[in-house]
Amino acid sequence: MSDRVLPDVTAESIKVIAESAGIGQLPDEAAAALAEDATYRLKQITQEAVKFMHHGKRRKLSTADFDNALKLKNVEPLYGFHAEEHIPFRFASGGGRELHFYEEKEVELGDIINAPLPRIPLDVNLKAHWLAIEGVQPSIPENPPPVPKEDQHAADRPPGVTAKPSGKDGTKPAGKPGKAEVKGLPSEVAGVKLKPVLTHELSVEQQLYYREITEACVGSCESRRAEALQSLATDPGLHQMIPRFSTFVCEGVRVNVVQSNLALLIYLMRMVKALMDNTTLHLEKYLHEVIPAVATCILSKQLCQRPDVDNHWALRDFAARLMGNMCRNFSSNINNIQSRMTKTYTKILHDEQSHLATRYGALAGLAEMGHDVVKSLLIPKLKEEGEKVKMLMEGPVHNSVDKTAAEHIRALLLKHCAPVLAKIRPGPDNQEQYKTDFGHLGPLLCAHVVKARQQQQQQQLQATTTTAAAASVVQRPTLQIPQGRASAVLSAMAAPRTPTPQPTTPSLLTISRPSTPANPPSTPTTPTPGTPNPQTKYIIVSTTKASTSTTLPSTSTISSSGLASSSSSAASTIVKFVSAAQGSASGGSEPRVLAQLPSGQKYVVVSVPSSGQTTTTSQGKTQAVVMVKSEGQGSQGQGSNTGITSAAGTLAQLATSSSQDSTKSSTGLQGGATPKPNS
Amino acid sequence: MADPNRTVVVTDGSNDASTVSGAATGVQSSPKGEKGAGTDPSKMDQQTLAAVLQFLKNNKLKDAEAALRREAKLPDGNGDSSGSSRVATSGEVSSVLSAYESEGDLARYCEYYNSLSSFIESSLDAHKHELGCLLYPVFIHMYLQLVYNRHEKEAHKFFNRFSVEQEDWHQEDLRTLSTVKTREQMEGNDLMDTFRSSKFVLRMSRDSYQSLRRYLKQNEHRELLSILQDHLFIDVFDGVPRNREQVQATSGAMMGEARRDANKVKVLYGLPKEPDINVPLDDDDEGAEGEDKPKKKKQKKDLLLNKNKKADPNAPPPSRIPLPELKDADKLEKVLSWKEGLKRVPLGRENLPSICFYTLANAYQNVSAVGVSEDSSLLAAGFEDSNVRVWSLSPQRLRTMRNASELDQLDKEADDIVERMMDEKTAADSWLLHGHTGPVYATSFSPDREQLLTSSEDGTVRLWSLHTYSNLVVYKGHNYPVWDVQFSPTGYYFVSGGHDRVARLWGTDQFQPIRMFVGHYSDVTCIQYHPNSNYVATGSSDRTVRLWDVLNGNCVRVMTGHKAAVHTLAWSPDGRYLASAGVDKNVLLWDIAYGRLLAEMKGHTDPIYSLCFSREGSILASGGIDNTVKIWDVQKVFEEIAGSDDLTSLDRASLVEVGSLLLGSFQTKATPVLKLHFSHRNLLLGCGRYQHS
């Protein structure tokens, strides 16, 4: 008990205080007596202050509570000592002494007087929403996400199996008759009443949301699509709609493969990626629809109208990467996704009659499965494939389509096999040796392996100085591709419910950032899959006049900045996340604020400080920045880009290895691209 | 020894002669409920009177003193009595403290305490828990004796050794106590004052008491005996000793349990018959709406007939308290609310309410109070920056009255005069009210929605007009922070309570309180007017809930059981049940008819700041700063006790075993639930301020 009480004021402190007040020689006795009394008074006032905290209906004691407690005791309060959150004491230690001090900065009065007037803060406003409708909490942005991911998983099990832990607040009334049975099994986890598991009716809002999202995802407006994907990737509370979305993707792929509509297929794959990126969703139950769709996009014979011109390779790469991610995330002993997919791929490779594009897809798919798969399945095939490529490129029958395919296959093999070879093959690299081992591809491969080795050496060099985490990144780069946040840049402003892409209402845009200022601004870092991605992003919140905040969800979320537009908001937030720079991003190392004024509207964009190397690929308005922090130093432009790939995993996912050609932008795969190794 | 309550009152009113006389009148009535078991009423009164007189004299309040003397029919005190009483007052503190003077061997206190503790441990299981209650007060008073007699070291040792053994809910007081380390600090410490001047109340069965006496006889611990005699009041009852749950259910209050006789007075908790509003109403209806008139009239007559039939035997006579007369507007109001009530959704286990939540966004200053008008059309929020803001929750925007010259031109006979008085140009969604100089801790709308009361840290209660949005009256009297204020359901009267431990009853047209409810040992933190306007319930940080009779100012119920400060109260619509909750995160449900605890509802994880019964009383909603609204099935409790209404079991506080009453729990994103309110149609409204990050 007594150790919970505040430590006493020591006589020493009293002496120090006395000295600062100009009393030089305070007798020990007096100091001790004063210390004791000071302790008592302090504790008494603290206890009174707690009362004020309780009446202020807060959890935190504030400085104002102390002032009020002092007033209560007829003591003059400390004027001008106000702190919102933290009491601004600073700690310092040195020479065996520990000190807490209050840093009072000297303020130049002239600066304050001459400074422009601060912006008027937003007025207090009152906003209503439904916390519950007849005992059921609707999934709207204003409410917390209805079901945490773990519980979704639990809810995925058949009702009979779910021995739900009854909430600690008490158990659900046994056998709630009538209504409950109609709706399905009522469940209650951790005191939160869950929606019945079997409910498959979507609310009107959800239906609207579904329509908006799907229209935006396959529509023509890139900015709306980016927003919709962002919503899919970040919004909690979508789990009720996953069946719809997965069916949408599945059917969409089915139809568009037949029609060879490459753009739409790409859009659908991006949807899948967004859904996978959403950490609050549990996709496992819907893989039976999603995997065939993705596999189709990898392996289909024809994905576009003009195979000789269109870059369907990018789609295959992207889908292959998605599949690789899926295998890593969802493969288990029960569903065996990885081995089944691997089997499918190898079957195609063994089939001599298989189409070249399909072959490319299978190779890409295998390459994305990880090092072990590359080692055991791809490398033994190198010779065979090399011969095939040689035959196609130099063979008598000159077919441009086949030739491009061969080029792509070659590039793909070189890109993925070189790093693995560099690891498993002892040096030195001998051109001749490679030629005998790998046939036609040998010499090229050798060059790549040499580069890869150089890079690895550099990385190891760094790894000795940097942390172990960085080292692990080096070792298994592909595993580090996480379900990170999409780093797509959203350029234009459009609320999901507002069909116009250009903002009309906001007159002023302000920036608020939910993260603590201490953190560096958002970089698309590579978080390990286990840890949640820190959601550092910029939120651009428009501050319309208070009067425009009607009950419409879209506008009201704008004005009440905090409530609905926090990072964990559900369905229809209209927050703009900007995680990359506008303009040249490789430049400034400090956050910059750019303001544009197109037709009277003000955008404020913050550029990400680039502490490491950045590689950008300009694509019209949108840009993405690849931040490479710990590895890849000096390797940029040289070619082998393992490090970059791993560091910018999220981007690499979006991008394709064949980003050299400018056809990429026409494919609609927006986002950054890592530089492609030059062979 | 003077009754503590009186001393408290007197010290509080020190600034203002008129308040003191007000206090005196309040005092005279209040102790009746308290005393009961006191020693000698006439002697006590004499002592009190002398103390009050002395106080007045010391503060040079001659008029008040003379008035009191006249009233008490005492001779003019300039001569004889002054000498003796002066001695008494000058040594007032020391004399009370000297109760702790002890010649005994203080060093052996540890031994004594140990002996008592082991005796209790070894006693029969049946008595163990009742006797266990002894330990805490004995511990406290032993510690205080040690401190008073300047055995600081021993006191510290004693405290460290035994404080951990005390129950969890005592730790808060113990922490306060632990700061008191010297004799000098004992003066002026509120908790100390309470302990030394009041007796700690324990209830135990006769059997347990006998075993205690046997123990005391065997071991002649004189100090222990004197502590028991001086500072403890043991209320012995005949019957079976209570078990652990029963003891725990009612323990926890600062000064022990309620005395048995404190809850004996009959409480007229019923609702009075609705006044006959047939006749004027018809006229109003014809004026107001013409279309659905026949249908409505018929329904209304049915209802009025129904109401007339059930004359509640527990209802107070209508004339018990002079209530403001019903105006035509009030009657219209009643009819409208009744009409709304017809559309009410019945709530229960099967039908959970819909909750509409109002979030205050962009509030840079914390919101410390939220009030909603009875008809759910207005919302007032009090901020820590002293502002009060009023919003309209209905489509009707808030307008001010026209200025005087414009008003003069209006046709005062017009039917819609009230409507015409308002200036349409001033319509706004919200109005800001400036005036307080400290955080606003409570807001309360008058039933006619024309006035708003707010209370604040600055020690004042302010009355605002909602026609002009200006401050009408400042009620001064508390001098310390006023934690809560509430209008009576009929208007005109209101009650405020604050840090000075007194709840005051006011009339809106008077500067001075009409009644003072004195008896809490610590701050009065919350107030709830009984639906029939005859009683007032107060909750306090001394962890008790008290019920006061407005007629005579008596305390008619003392309910103990909370383990921390009470912060919110709610009456069931029928006036019989009271729900209370606060920092201890539990909702307790009380039966006012007998002052007994009915149920304990656990589930919140942070202090609870709002409670509300649904309009038909079957559901209780609670909300707190754990950002959750919880719905409780109180109907089940009422059904359980309906069978066991016999008086025999009442002496034993038997908790209704109801299992889990929780029906639903609804979490907000990051908004503490500061206010809950059921609309006439049983739509639950919640309100709070969004908390960033």
Radius of gyration of chain B: 27 Å
Strands of the biggest beta sheet of chain A: in what spatial order? 6-7-8
Oligomer: heterodimer
What is the CA–CA distance across the termini of chain A?
Answer: 72 Å
In total, the number of strands of chain A is 12
What average pLDDT do the residues of chain B reach? 79
What is the rounded Rg of chain A? 31 Å
Shape of chain A: elongated
Q: Percent of residues of chain B in helical segments?
A: 25-40%
Helix tally of chain A equals 25
Largest sheet entry of chain B: 4 strands, antiparallel
What is the structural class of chain B?
alpha+beta
Share of β-strand residues of chain B: 15-25%
What characterizes the major β-sheet of chain A? 3 strands, antiparallel
Mean of pLDDT of chain A: 65
Write out the strand line-up for the largest beta sheet of chain B, numbering strands in chain order: 4-5-6-7
Strand portion of chain A, in percent? 5-15%
Can you characterise this structure?
The complex is a heterodimer of chains A (679) and B (693). Chain A has 679 residues and is mostly helical. In chain A, 44% of the residues lie in helices and 8% in strands. Chain A has 25 helices and twelve strands. In chain A, helix 7 crosses helix 8 and helix 19 runs antiparallel to helix 20. Chain A starts with 10 loop residues before the first helix and ends in a 12-residue tail after the last helix. In chain A, 44% of the residues are buried. By secondary structure, chain B is an alpha+beta fold. Helix content of chain B is 34%, strand content 25%. Chain B has 23 helices and 29 strands. Chain B has a four-stranded antiparallel β-sheet with strand order 4-5-6-7, with no helix packed on it. In chain B, helix 10 packs across helix 16. Chain B is globular. The N terminus of chain B is likely disordered. Chain A: This is Transcription initiation factor TFIID subunit 6. Chain A: One of its GO terms (biological process) is RNA polymerase II preinitiation complex assembly.
